[in-house]
């Protein structure tokens, strides 16, 4: 819970101090996204790996922090505005890793980031080949590694 509070404080500082054209710091924003995804994907938050009793206890005490941080990552992505293109294709892999976490609310709130990435790249270049190349490469790697499930495939296609 304390790590989540610290990450949220970092996010607030980024929005307030390092978002404007004159003060934008690409590396700080990049660090935020990587830190937040690493937090979200850490083993100790993967509730589906625990017994029902332990899962229930964790949810009662802390809630599902994955959905909370996932929504924060999504909001931070949209805060970037025209700067989003600077994170494509580099953030495709981390965002994909996050969306593969088998938690429906998290997936619903974060899969749309991919479509925003495509739109962003297309508006600038009239193509989304950089995004496409990266997502296919990362998807191949993740699926071969045993990640992804039928629910993910159906949700991705329907969205």
Automatic annotation (TrEMBL):
<dbReference type="GO" id="GO:0005737">
    <property type="term" value="C:cytoplasm"/>
</dbReference>
<dbReference type="GO" id="GO:0007264">
    <property type="term" value="P:small GTPase-mediated signal transduction"/>
</dbReference>
<dbReference type="GO" id="GO:0007520">
    <property type="term" value="P:myoblast fusion"/>
</dbReference>
<dbReference type="Pfam" id="PF23554">
    <property type="entry name" value="TPR_DOCK"/>
</dbReference>
<dbReference type="InterPro" id="IPR056372">
    <property type="entry name" value="TPR_DOCK"/>
</dbReference>
<protein>
    <submittedName>
        <fullName>Dedicator of cytokinesis protein 2</fullName>
    </submittedName>
</protein>
<dbReference type="GO" id="GO:0005886">
    <property type="term" value="C:plasma membrane"/>
</dbReference>
<dbReference type="InterPro" id="IPR026791">
    <property type="entry name" value="DOCK"/>
</dbReference>
<dbReference type="GO" id="GO:0031267">
    <property type="term" value="F:small GTPase binding"/>
</dbReference>
<dbReference type="GO" id="GO:0016477">
    <property type="term" value="P:cell migration"/>
</dbReference>
<feature type="domain" description="Dedicator of cytokinesis TPR repeats region">
    <location>
        <begin position="3"/>
        <end position="159"/>
    </location>
</feature>
<dbReference type="GO" id="GO:0005085">
    <property type="term" value="F:guanyl-nucleotide exchange factor activity"/>
</dbReference>
